[in-house]
Design a protein that fits this description.
This protein has 180 residues and is of the alpha+beta class. It has helices at residues 7-10, 65-76, 92-104, 165-168, and strands at residues 57-58, 62-63, 112-115, 123-126, 138-142, 147-152, 156-161, 171-177. The termini are far apart.
Length: 180
């Protein structure tokens, strides 16, 4: 097939992904989920470039990594609203207290479920702080099996590949919120 133009090419067009159509120019329109049939990610283009704001929960103003997780997961699945833990992005000690039970599977009466790999809407837990290696303190949302969206202070919200050398070494797991 003819590869799409624009951001799909720059971020890694894969012709074997049957959901990419000849007219597709956006990564977000064509994400899919192998485990439960083909699903399309919602259009998230309005979130790209939203500035990082510690404690941010409004895309019009700014989002921190958990605010972006809350926004994206609510768009992917309207019935799957993740809780707001209200922890500052700079408060690594409290992030550790929140993320450790998620990783261990003991958080919120086990409503967080570990997934075998990345799928649309999965929350990716990452350990990016050199001060706490191996402790998840950053989060993003998978758009498909090879890309996720997240936000950082210097870049704002953006999409990166899960198989990138830096990010692939930081992933602690993939999780899904299943409210009781």
């Amino acid at each position: 097939p003819t590869p799409p133009r624009g951001d799909a090419v720059s971020l890694g067009y894969r012709p074997e992904c049957e959901c990419l159509e000849r007219t597709c120019t956006s990564l977000f329109v064509c994400a899919r989920r192998r485990t439960r049939g083909a699903l399309r990610a919602p259009d998230l283009s309005d979130l790209i470039g939203v500035p990082f704001l510690d404690g941010g929960r409004d895309p019009a103003i700014g989002l921190d990594c958990w605010g972006l997780v809350m926004e994206v997961t609510s768009r992917v699945s309207r019935d799957r609203i993740v809780p707001d833990y209200g922890v500052s992005a700079d408060d690594i000690a409290n992030i550790r207290l929140v993320s450790a039970p998620i990783i261990a599977g003991t958080a919120e009466k086990s409503n967080w479920h570990r997934l075998p790999g990345p799928i649309l809407g999965a929350v990716a837990a990452l350990a990016i702080s050199p001060y706490c290696p191996g402790v998840a303190q950053h989060f993003g949302v998978c758009l498909d099996e090879i890309r996720f969206i997240h936000t950082l202070k210097k870049t704002g919200a953006h999409v990166v590949r899960l198989d990138h050398l830096f990010w692939s070494r930081k992933i602690q797991g993939y999780f899904e919120w299943r409210a009781a």
